[in-house]
UniProtKB/TrEMBL annotation, chains A, B:
Residues 1-43 are annotated as: Disordered. Residues 42-269 form the Polyphosphate kinase-2-related domain. InterPro entries: P-loop_NTPase, Polyphosphate_phosphotransfera, PPK2-rel_1, PPK2-related. This is Polyphosphate kinase (Could be polyphosphate AMP phosphotransferase (Pap)). The keyword Kinase applies. GO terms for molecular function: polyphosphate kinase activity. One of its GO terms (biological process) is polyphosphate metabolic process. Pfam families: PPK2.
Length: 289, 289
């Protein structure tokens, strides 16, 4: 059985990047938020697959980190977007949290501060880019500047509509410097959001996560979907494609993001750096101490 | 059996803070680095206890984080010190890495940069203090400024000898602002360090962690122990006591630090914030959307 599971995992392993990739023109509305593309198992199988992936991704992450100590400049940037309650926090906790925290750098982008508002929208983003060897993670990102900003016209239309091109130019320069960009949209249904918000209201230990404004935002659901569609159409590029991860099933979303991490890290194939000292001589020297 | 394990854990639970606390005058040389104070189980039992603690600490961490969203100002600062190979990285990975990365902020202090050297030694430390609700973790810390700096006289003696008092004043002000400080010294033997350095040399996937200077530093072992003794004698205070964690057994060191975290968080007893909105009214409003 263990063997079956492994071969099942392997057969789907290479396909998540393909199954979830959303090139321009991909119709968001046609993607079922409860579907599990690239995986044909159930919740239990998905959780088992996630647990198995953890060691593999941890090993790859350590190699990436080690490579940078030998002069490597490569890094990874995982961008996570999604509507309220889409499960961004769960990705941080259960996927990102599964690898060594020393090799991960999470930045959570809130509404910009007064200081941040004085600068171009990419200013705070640049400051949060991952160092060589690191896996940077953005919980929300520069895409908010063409999502909530577009939906509520927080800046004039002429201004936000220029941002798609600015984002593409920016991401190209980031990729050129050795950063692999993985952009994930956690795709939930309006009904699923309702039930998650209901849970937050019904459980006193979840009240702190609730904001009455979350309900008001639901009136703009269609506008947000349109804004996400525009993001896919305009900013899913070869150097930084978007992946749409159906997220009504939390276990699948977590498995999918972990798998995307794994596939991109395997692509990078980071190497242990070669010693820049004489190993035998050092062993001899150590013995004498 | 499960019951036995639980009661065993409970009986030792309250005692780690007491068993490991090193008040001024505690003789470092008299503490066996292979001992397991506060715990009478073996490695397997220790690993099981660590796994069980994870959920408890995760829950407490989430409460602390939530509390800050309701206006709470409390936070935790875990300071981790120890000789090379003492297991600081393992603590980051296996203890700190076991809780939600969104609630944790690790700062790894290296040799100060040119910019940092222009400022007083506490300048970079202040910038890294945890925000309300967070568990800040220092991998090395301001104590390096009275450890390596003292051993190698990197600044004049008159200057480093003033720092103990400056550190106490600083830590008192940090505690006054609501931060619980937990200072941990991972205590290993010179022999154990030798075997860990040997492993780093014998395994190509560990070469990147090795630095020939680590062997040279072994000549100053006694000086470092003396410097740690001075730290305990001068900077183990009521608001920020030192805990000496025997660390020749990695499993014990990890269990002990997790347990120290747990005991201090339990002491804080963080509370879910009370909703500042009308729950029933919001539920009604949500239903209509």
């Amino acid at each position: 059985m263990a063997k079956d599971k492994k071969s099942a995992k392997k057969s789907s392993a290479a396909s998540f990047s393909e199954a979830l990739r959303a090139d321009p023109g991909t119709d968001l509305a046609s993607i079922d938020p409860r579907s599990t593309p690239g995986f044909d198992g159930d919740k239990e199988a998905g959780q088992a697959a996630l647990a198995e992936l953890t060691d593999v991704v941890s090993d790859l992450q350590e190699r990436l980190f080690a490579e940078s100590k030998g002069g490597g400049v490569r890094s990874v940037l995982l961008v996570v977007q999604g509507m309220d309650t889409a499960g961004k926090g769960g990705i941080m906790r259960h996927v990102v949290g599964a690898v060594d925290p020393q090799g991960v750098d999470i930045t959570s982008f809130k509404a910009p501060t007064a200081e941040e508002r004085k600068h171009p929208f990419l200013w705070r983003i640049r400051k949060a880019l991952p160092e060589p060897g690191m896996i940077g993670v953005f919980d929300r990102s520069h895409y908010e500047d063409v999502l909530i900003v577009r939906v509520h016209d927080l800046v004039p239309r002429a201004q936000w509509s220029r941002r798609y091109g600015q984002i593409n130019t920016f991401e190209e320069s980031v990729a050129d410097k050795g950063t692999t960009i993985i952009k994930v949209m956690l795709h939930i249904s309006k009904d699923e959001q309702k039930s998650r918000l209901t849970e937050r209201l019904e459980r006193p230990d979840k009240h702190w996560k609730f904001n009455p404004g979350d309900i008001d935002e639901r009136e703009h659901w269609a506008d947000y979907q349109e804004a996400y569609q525009a993001v896919i159409d305009k900013c899913s590029t070869d150097v930084a494609p978007w992946y749409v991860v159906p997220a009504d099933r939390k276990w699948f979303a977590r498995l999918a993001v972990m798998q995307l991490l794994k596939e991109h890290l395997e692509q990078l194939d980071p190497q242990w750096p070669v010693a820049d000292f004489d190993v035998a001589a050092e062993l001899k020297r150590l013995k004498k101490t």
